[in-house]
Specification:
Length: about 325
């Protein structure tokens, strides 16, 4: 039997308690339900009790800020009941308390792991979990060019890249962070796994992008964001195996959507349970990152200390995150 606590952080803080008989994959199922309810997960703690039960503690924030209403609370419980089915025995909401205010304070990270997770470039020759897979090599062939000859008031930005989940999101968040305005855009359907996008853009002051250095900087930034929108590594954390996923935070402070759900789905498909998970912010390479840390349960069919197995886990998680 599993006991799942979910602490919901909104204008009113709650703890959600769900008892379930699914001892291994409840984290993935609950994550899917919370994502559909627009409830963002801040941190997860999974604890195995002496009697064989598992306690899942979810800290989440209501994006709609309506959880103080009875209707929203009932909707949350009903949705989780529907997803978990017969394995869900009961649901209950409780106040969380002030001790959970600093949930984005992430545990310390070694300099070696941080360098691996936040490095700006990838090398085919490096024997490490971030080494380029065939799909990522295709991403490296992305074409980003600018043209000022077709419009008197806008710069044409042309992008040709292998399609992946979040393709438009990565481009739009990058342009937004660079204070670039979009006047008109057109994108093609996927052809042979690739997508083309034409955008007529200009500076925030309404002027075209005519400076060659600024054009090159923008194109390079877009190529980097499309090549490397998510970082995935697996390493040791003391005696345990830890999976880390990092993604840049927008200047507005928002993180990438659905990362937690995609990672838990990938691990579930591999038959790997999560012992604990946390989400926090980390500053590196002159920007802020959202970092997801998962301690993996060693009681699975994989030898998590095996480097080949670890690379397979990283590849599976990355492919799910990229929609491949």
């Amino acid at each position: 039997m599993v006991a799942t606590d979910i602490v919901l952080l909104a204008s009113v803080n709650y703890k959600f308690i769900c008892y379930s008989s699914d001892v291994c994959y409840i984290s993935s199922d609950v994550t899917r339900a919370l994502d559909e309810l627009e409830l963002s997960i801040q941190r997860v703690k999974v604890t195995t009790t002496p009697d064989g039960c598992v306690l899942d503690l979810f800290f989440i924030r209501d994006n709609l800020e309506l959880l103080h209403t009875k209707e929203r609370q009932n909707e949350t419980c009903e949705q989780l009941h529907a997803v978990l089915g017969e394995s869900c025995i009961s649901c209950e909401l409780q106040l969380a308390g002030p001790q959970y205010d600093n949930l984005l304070c992430i545990s310390s990270m070694s300099s070696v792991v941080a360098e691996e997770l936040f490095r700006c470039t990838l090398s085919d020759k490096e024997i490490r979990s971030q080494a380029l897979s065939p799909d990522v090599r295709e991403l490296k062939k992305a074409s980003v060019i600018t043209d000022n000859s077709l419009s008197p008031s806008h710069t044409l930005l042309q992008i040709n890249c292998i399609d992946h989940k979040g393709f438009l999101y990565d481009i739009m968040r990058t342009l937004k962070d660079c204070n670039i305005q979009i006047a008109y855009g057109r994108f093609s359907t996927v052809q042979k796994g690739r997508r083309e996008l034409d955008l007529f853009i200009r500076h925030q002051d309404g002027k075209k992008i005519v400076d060659p250095e600024k054009q090159e900087a923008l194109c390079s930034r877009l190529k980097l964001e499309m090549l490397h929108p998510l970082r995935v590594v697996i390493t040791n954390r003391g005696p345990d195996t830890e999976l880390l996923v990092g993604n840049p935070v927008e200047l507005s402070g928002r993180g990438r959507p659905r990362v937690f759900y995609d990672v838990t789905f990938a691990l579930k498909s591999l038959g790997i349970c999560i012992f604990s998970a946390e989400i926090g912010r980390h500053s590196a390479a002159d920007r802020e990152w959202e970092v997801y840390r998962f301690l993996l349960d060693e009681n699975c069919t994989f030898q998590l200390s095996n480097m080949v197995i670890r690379n397979q886990i990283v590849d599976k998680v990355r492919r799910i995150l990229m929609g491949w």
